[in-house]
Amino acid sequence: MPAKPALEPKHCHLASQPPSPTRRLLRGFAFDPSLATKLETALVSEITYKIPWEPGLQPGPVGEYVEVVDYDPPSQCFYAPLDLNAPHVLAQNGLQPSEGNPQFHQQMTYAVAMTTIDRFERALGRKAFWADRLEIAAGERPESRFIPRLRIYPHAMRMPNAYYSRNKGSLLFGYFPATEDRSSGQFPGGMVFTCLSHDVIAHETTHALLDGFHEHFMEATNPDVLAFHEAFSDIVALFQHFTFPEVLRHQIARTRGDLRSENLLAQLAAQVGLARGTHGALRDAIGRFDRETGRWVRHTPDPTALDHLTQVHARGAILVAAVFDAFLSIYQDRSRDLLRLASGGTGVLAQGDLHPDLVNRLAQEAAKAAGHVLNMCIRALDYCPPVDLTFGEYLRALVTADMDLMQEDEHHYRVAFIEAFRRRGIYPRDVRTLSEDSLRWARPGEAMEGAPGESERMLAHFIKSIGLREQVDRLRYLSTREQIWQETRKIRAALHQAIQGQVAKAELLQRLTGLALAEFQAPPNVSVRRDGHPVFTVQAMREARRLGEDGRILNQVFITLLQ
Amino acid sequence: MPTAKKVAGFPAAPVVAPGSPAKYRVRVRMYRHGLGDCFLLTFPRKGQAPLQMLIDCGVLVRDKAYMTGLVEHIHKTVAPKGGKARLDVVAATHEHKDHLSGFNQARAVFNAKFDFGAVWLGWTENLTKQEILKIKTAKRKAVATLRAALAMPGIGPELEGLEELLGFSEDDDTTGSGKVGEALEYLKLRGTDAGDLRYLEPGEGPLDLDGVEGVRVYVLGPPLDPILLKGSEVTEKMKRDGVIYHLGATGEAGMDGLAAAAGVGGVGEGEKFFPFSPEHRISRQSPYFQNLAEFLGKTYDDPAQEWRQIEKDWLKAFGQLALDLDSDTNNTSLVLAFEFVKTGEVLLFVGDAQVGNWQSWADVKFAVPGREQPLPAHDLLNRTVFYKVGHHGSHNATLKAGGLELMNRPGLVAFIPLDKATAKAQGKHGWDMPAEPLFHALREKAGERVVLSDTGEAPGAKAKAAGVKATAAYVDYFLV
Description:
The structure holds two protein chains of two kinds. By secondary structure, chain A is α+β, with helices and mostly antiparallel strands. Chain A has 17 helices and 17 strands. In chain A, a hairpin with a 4-residue loop joins strand 14 (287-290) and strand 15. The mean pLDDT of chain A is 84. Chains A and B meet through strand 4, strand 5, strand 8, strand 9 and strand 10 of A and strand 11, helix 9, helix 10 and helix 11 of B.
């Protein structure tokens, strides 16, 4: 009698297996280690980050998006890579927050970078990519290479500095001894790590994400471009504060719900700022420390400030303040009814602490508003011109993106944005009024060119003939980022071919797209190929699936043409 | 420091240029001694010898004998009959070699043959103020550390370009220039001896020149605002490297870290700059390194990813620091405007003021006797007839908007103290002096009346018509 076939060891008993997790829990500092040293904030100084579970996470940590490599060149040494899947680490939601343990630093940078990437992807409705690497081999055409992972060096230099380097595809974080000035409230000479500051990590990660998105935003073609890079990175870091429920509730209770007064949520990189001896956070969206009076004072919007500020951080701060102001108006609008309910209809709260229930509800409203504002800010990137962005154009992108997704502006988000931008003198140059409709980018056919309906028909025909739908469908079923990257590249090449063929024939289409494509007719500042065809590139092709307010799914494809 | 050309000694030249007018309201003499500033202003007075004012006396590349010759020439100019010469005012704009070296190199002549009436310095030189002393000490330490780091094998090449920047602040004994700081100390001493040492602040004044009628002196800089005092910009190199810098300039902390790495800190100093205790550190020599070999083989040591290594990146920021040090010092320049009250004409001396200093003038106002509204500094710019171009004509030392664009007097004369050959010999690629766009803008305003101190560049016909006289040793401007 033949023996019973042995059960292959691979076939495990599925019914008894737990489902694979969707989130990994990791402990970390809420803002930075400085909160832990103050009695008032010690309770909320640590939080648990919930980041996407990466199945193949390796020691480093090295995952799908980032790799932490802890090399310290000034000290000429390495720090051992952290294995987040080791049972002792897994069982305790990662390592205990500690300034003196390099492995925890690795965990902190990984957790915050992944949180930021996750936020970005969810807002955009697609995968994030890092900037390509241009490899130039001798005698060959430059070749774009896919960069799967952003590298993170938590201890790269000895200075109060951190930066994103495209040339290295890396984030470099520095460390430095705190100022000897005792009035800073820091331990004089104590080591301060920029890689332990949520804000610094989120800020630098956003630089990298933005660079992967709009490669020309690091070219200072006007004073706004680099300032936008800074401002956008600050905006992402700031609004992530509102995803920390404990801190949010704490700060709402402390300010009695008035987020316009001094609070931690509106400040960036408190410890780094203090340790450098600046008497306050590195940046603050709503106020500043006044050296003369020794007090915190609220910013007053100055509509002329943009005319004379050229330093990128100072200029960027204006955009940050405008966005934060829009958020505060939205939050006030959303919480007014709660305040009336809690105050017998007057809207004026009685003195003393707020009721914890009210704090919870206010925190929910703040978190919701912050989430929406951040979503709007990120989605607007899809509607930004690929080069030479100005703050005014960003406002137009914000409004257009939001109108596409949320036709009803129920909570007056767009009005709040327009008002906040107007108060800081941020206007687009070429609109007639500051109404939503005139701020929105024009649709094809709105310009009175050709016979009525002609341009729409032509555009529809054009989209059909370049085979856009078929092209995009090819992306649907790809799973890894590298496959998507490869396929997108092919689609871009195919689109280039198709557009060249279609548009060159139709003069109206050329005017619609703004491209000059006909042979030997290029305007003087457009470069021309040897065969007489003007050069243009299909800079990017992105698709997005987003859920609108009314539950509709919006399918969008963004194609960026650059000439 | 490379020498551009060897000149035996200071050329012989008459103390009065041929063709000089007999009567004038002021003579501005720019010496043609190389890359550096030395200006002698002569204001005739009624019934007494003219008032003599020296603004700076320094050079980047000249030896002691040459500079002694120059100072002797100043002596002959001021006291043609011999005996002690009196400099009624000596002003030093800022602590850089190319503005002060002469006070060290020709110290003996200054001691033996000159009386000083008063010494004027910017408020930023007042070391009795604690915060200023702190900044100066930190700067000096930074310069010393950068020097030491340059000498280190493996580090030096990364810090390329730094050498030339340090040249200005560097203490140099090969040419008898000695310590730049000592020149300032000397001037302070002379000022104290004369009983008139002044640290000037913007908005101060107008000051009178003793016995000179109808001339007022206004102080425009150095700025009081610490942010404007630090007015450096994003450099081309940073843009080229695709790096966006954060959290501002490199602080003292980075300096200390570099000092430790370069081994110039005290014994055992190094340890305090390590971020973690020794048990965490795994060097390539450590027995535990083999545990990391596999991980590093896939990441840091992967040959295909060599481009991502960061061995020397932390050093790059120090180039920026050197640049900051240099432009911060430039920005402490004492800026003076001389106004001829009756005609409204203004002579403007800006030292080497850079962007921040220029920007600060927008808010500077003066309480002038007999005027109801305070006088804005920009009004003085508007009436400028003579401009001493800042920083030898470099790109970032003459602001366009709020600067040159405001100077609208017809007949504007601009003097650039610059020896082109010396500038070209600096650094790997030479210095861009005068910077083409600035020179162009200057020429648009002042036409041929832009005059270089370079001995190879004779003043044009239009400059001569505007009262410019030249000899081999100096160029004179006359306001008649």
